[in-house]
Design a protein that fits this description.
Layout: E1 6-9, E2 21-23, E3 28-32, E4 39-45, E5 49-51, E6 55-62, E7 66-74, E8 76-79, H1 84-100, E9 118-122, E10 128-133, H2 135-145, E11 158-159, H3 161-167, H4 172-175, H5 178-183, E12 192-193, H6 197-205
Antiparallel strand pairs: 1-8, 2-5, 3-4, 3-8, 4-6, 6-7, 9-10, 11-12
């Protein structure tokens, strides 16, 4: 079975229809929120699999915390047919991130950030010591290590507080506490240019007709937090 490229809604890919999907290692896994098609989480598939409809899969991800043996629900797959060299680069990047945390005992919250998608924490002397990520940032940086730009993060649409509360429901209380929200990079009432999980799957969707590597995807609006995208809902407007 060949590797297909693009973004795939697993509800449409079942063995009963003769339409199973072969999924490559380090393909991007998407989990819907409680309100599909809003994509609430993104991760990296840990090993190659053949999937038949929505599944539970093993992933590398920023939960938080960073985990290499996590089990998540998989509703979407984004894959671009990574080369052996790209897979090796991502593998090396994952190992490097793990070493950053060997000497630190941190709460999961201390590994996480919303904006920017990745931030280096530095020592008192200004030396970079470890990275903080959002779940999307973890995927973006893994692919960037392989020379692949998934999103153009400098040109994201503005997301308001209601949207962030939906995207980061587990942090809803924190987002209403100014000091803690500031620590996550989202002070005040926004809007903020945040890399959200749904954008990744619109990025990989561009590979359905060509595997040639592309520039980072620029979302046309916050409606693309959904995959497939719907018209923007009033409470998600920029």
């Amino acid at each position: 079975m060949e590797i297909e490229t693009g973004t795939f809604v697993l509800e449409q890919r079942t063995s009963e229809s003769g339409n199973s999907l072969r999924v490559q290692r380090f393909a991007i896994v998407g989990t819907y929120s409680k309100q599909p098609p809003f994509v609430g989480h993104a991760a990296l598939l840990r090993k190659e699999e053949t999937l038949n409809g929505p599944s539970t899969v093993s992933v590398h991800h920023m939960g938080p915390p960073i985990e290499n043996l996590a089990q998540v629900s998989c509703h979407l797959i984004g894959q671009i047919n990574l080369t052996n060299e790209e897979i090796e680069s991502i593998e090396n990047w994952l190992a490097d991130v793990d070493t950053q945390y060997c000497d630190w005992k941190l709460l999961p919250f201390q590994q996480y950030i919303i904006k920017p998608h990745m931030k280096w924490e530095k020592s008192e002397k200004g030396r970079p010591i470890r990275q903080r990520f959002s779940c999307v940032g973890y995927v973006i940086e893994a692919y960037k290590a392989a020379g692949i730009e998934l999103l153009e993060t400098a040109n994201l649409p503005g997301a308001n507080k209601l949207l962030l509360m939906q995207a980061y429901s587990e942090f809803s209380e924190i987002l209403n506490k100014p000091r803690l929200a500031n620590n996550l990079g989202v002070p005040g009432n926004g809007p903020w240019k945040v890399a959200l999980a749904g954008y990744l799957f619109h990025s990989t969707g561009r590979y359905s007709s060509s595997m040639s590597r592309k520039d980072g995807f620029i979302p046309t609006g916050v409606k693309e937090v959904n995959f497939p995208s719907n018209e923007a809902q009033p409470d998600l407007a920029e």
